[in-house]
Prior knowledge:
The protein is an alpha/beta fold. The strands form 2 sheets. Strands 3, 4, 5, 6, 7 and 8 form a 6-stranded mixed beta sheet that branches. A two-stranded antiparallel sheet has the order 1-2. The chain has 17 helices and 8 strands. It has helices spanning 14-26, 33-49, 69-76, 80-89, 106-118, 123-130, 134-152, 154-157, 163-166, 169-181, 205-208, 243-250, 252-259, 293-319, 336-353, 358-363, 370-373, and strands spanning 95-97, 103-105, 189-197, 209-210, 215-224, 230-238, 270-271, 282-283. The protein is 49% helix and 11% strand.
Amino acid sequence: MAVQAPVALADADVAEVLLGLFVLEHDEDNLDDEDLLLLCAAVEFADAHGILTLPQAIPARPDIFQLDDVDFLKRFRFTRRQVCWVHAALALPPSFTAPCRTSWSSMEGLLILLRRMAYAARLSDLCTEFGRSTSSLSKIFNIMLVWIWNRWGQLLANPFLQPFFMANRVADYRQAVSDKTRVDLSVWGFIDGTVRPICRPERHQREFYNGHKRTHAMKFQAVVAPDGLIVHLYGPVEGRRHDAGVLGESGLLNQMAAHMNSPTGVPYPVYGDPAYPLSPYIQKAYLGAAVTPNQQRFNTSMNSARICVEWAFGDIVSLWKYVDTKKQQKMLLQPVGLYYQVGALMTNLRNIVRYGNKTSKHFGISPPSLEEYLQ
């Protein structure tokens, strides 16, 4: 249908003009004929009366890869070469199209996701960097989050079925822990929980309130291996939940009972803090006043090794500042749990492409290759 000439507007049509300008600012690439008629009329009205200001035009899309290496690493947490490696390994489709018909390449979408996660910047601040409107950036960011987690989230949800984990990694993990701690318990990893503050929700405030941290929060449970990988992540759950309750709900013990045993049936446990119940698959420090010298040496050695879980939690929030900005974590309004989950996955990928991190160097074992991890 051909677009007709703009129609005249009276003062009573100001509300429609404002609506038209809003559409122009937020969805400029996807307008039908009726939208064009309204916007033409809005422009004519604004020019004639001088009472409205058109939004600034979105700048041309820059070539992000023209940034120098230092600036690129600071903005995206990966070098240009590493981003290309991750993009290829994630098996992203060539392009994406949102329901509103906004299209973008998978490389652009990955860069937008990394840039948004790396800093708690406003979407309006990213318009100049990517040459897109705030609404387009928001759509791209959220669609990329969902796609990556749907495709690769099982790496953290159930690692015991993943090829990279079962290909002699468990034996290497056990040996690395034993060599470092001088304790032969067949421990292969370390478990702990973390509390992530969120905005005070409009509903269910009591469920999300964590009395220990004195803030509304959500909780995650993670198992970290000696090579620095977060091999298991469960959450989010309400901030008031105890670590032992989260453990039972996660199903981790059932997964380990099915897969983490020697050929003769001896369990391969993880090591946790005193909050976790003692079981064949969970080991913890000796407690009480009557601790023997040998038991004390055991506690000291294993507790010093267990700090790697805290290093992993620290890496997530230091690399991806967006998940550490309380005012951005609006439970029931945004997928705040998904932000942290994808942040953990991206932390693993960064650990791999940088050939290890503090934990892997501490235990003397390198992570798998990107192809081995994402197969």
